[in-house]
Amino acid sequence: MSEVVAFEGFRPVRPTTRGRAGRAPLVIFNRHELDTILQTYSRMVMAGEWRDYSLAFESDCATFSIFRRASEGALYRVVKSPKTAQRQGMYAVISAGGRILRRGHNLVSVLAALNTKQLKLV
After folding, report:
1. I want to staple 44 with a disulfide (CB 3.0 to 4.6 A). Which of 19, 32, 48, 50 is the partner?
2. Residue 5 lies in a domain
């Protein structure tokens, strides 16, 4: 059977950030950027093209990876890299083969590379 435990003296432990101390801060997508990316993602999910995504945050870039199936490699990656903001633009869409499809300063115009209609035989 189960044993009853009293939580009278229980205090939650705060998570520590000791692993990141002294390192450069992570690059992340802000709420507006993530909303814009997820709008495009949800349209393609409803069309049945994409099924899964992942987020990765590092000290030099943030990546939103798009998958057709979770077991496969990423079809596309939307990358935010502040280092390239002055030169080529902060945002880039990269295909599965590593080819840069579009790069720019405006996220909406960069995501237009993913909104292209694909012709299908019926």
Report:
1. 50
2. no
